[in-house]
Amino acid sequence: MKKAILLALAFLLTSVYVFAQDIIVTPKEKLSEVKEENKIVIKRNDKNQSTHIDFVCKNTGEVCKTIDIKKGNPFSKILSTYPILAKKTRPSNPYPEYDLSRIDYKKVVKDFLPNVKGAFTRACGMYNARVLSGTIERENFIMLTYGTYMGDGAGGTVAGNSHIYIYNRNGQLLFSMKNMNEGPGNIKITEDGRYFAYQYGGFGGPHSSCIVGHSTPYGIKIIDTHTGKIIANETPEDRAASKPEIIHNRIALKYKLRNGEDIEFVFFDFKTQKRYAKVFSIKQYHKLKTFSEYGMIFKDPEDSNKEIVYRLDKDFEQTPIK
């Protein structure tokens, strides 16, 4: 019995870490070192659509690994058995639009929403499915995203699923996150690849017949790719959030308060492991000049030749990042 437990522990310590049902993180000791200075090359077709990701050895020019973006799309593989509604959706999207109107509701849920709780409690009128893919490239890694969204035919989105994969320059999988059913969008990742943020929510809309699983409000989540943990989940109720941005390797958010008179800036600094926040009036905001490593720089309203500096460590409210 004791030997079996020890063997099980040894397996866990030497395997890919699974922190949740749909999140996989590859520990550093399981990654082989890049012997040559490889680079990541994205191939595009004549319509400027990303078609392949090549991992190329700079010294020899040889391709050590290739990812076919379209063929590797997990959603288009499943949808290939579904009828096509339209061969082309828009010039930038190489995937067709699929017809769900004659497909059994339970089959759609089983194929695309395996982890959505309560999905069978109410049948939704799913009319069409769209498929998307995208890349975010950095010097040392690349993020590949896939998504599918089910519409009700009247402008509303009733369900969706997304997968995210991050590869290093050697083409090795560093991180993956699957079955993201909240409608993630506007994904931004720090320059070092450690953290990424995304907006979520908004399924349903004024024309949607229902929402599969649950209705999610708008919010922003931040994920630590080294642990697979959600380190922040911003769910503002009294403010409207803009999309996340990366500023000096911090994740930055801008909120417009419901009073219509104030703007709140929030910065997640991963060196200090702190969340910095400060509210400015609209009048102050219009004097914003730039962002610095230390904070924000505004034009002096009294003298255009002078500047006012607000430092994160002195002038902002600070709370620890969980």
Shape: globular
- Please bin the fraction of helical residues: 10-25%
Query: Which consecutive residue ranges, at least 5 long each, have pLDDT under 50?
Result: 1-21
Mean pLDDT: 84
**What Rg is obtained from the alpha carbons, in whole angstroms?**
23 Å
Largest sheet: 8 strands, antiparallel
Tell me the series of helices and strands, N- to C-terminal.
HEEEEEHEEHEEEEEEEEEEEEEHEEEHE
Number of helices: 5
- Counted up, domains total 2
Structural class call reads mainly beta
Q: Whole-Å distance between the termini? A: 38 Å
Please give a structural write-up.
The chain is mostly beta strands and 322 residues long. It folds into 2 domains: 18-235, no CATH class; 238-322, no CATH class. It is 11% helix and 45% strand. The chain contains 5 helices and 24 strands. The chain has helices at residues 2-14, 74-79, 105-112, 282-285, 312-315; strands at 17-20, 23-25, 38-44, 50-57, 63-68, 84-86, 97-99, 128-137, 141-151, 157-168, 173-180, 185-189, 195-200, 219-224, 229-234, 239-241, 245-247, 250-257, 262-269, 274-281, 288-291, 295-299, 307-311, 317-320. Strands 1-2-11-10-9-8-7-6 form an 8-stranded antiparallel sheet. Strands 16, 17, 18, 19, 20 and 24 form a 6-stranded antiparallel sheet that branches. The protein has a 4-stranded antiparallel sheet with strand order 12-13-14-15, with no helix packed on it. Strand 9 and strand 10 form a beta hairpin. The longest helix is centred in the first third of the chain and has 13 residues, at 2-14. The radius of gyration is 23 Å and the shape is globular. It starts with a helix and ends with a strand.
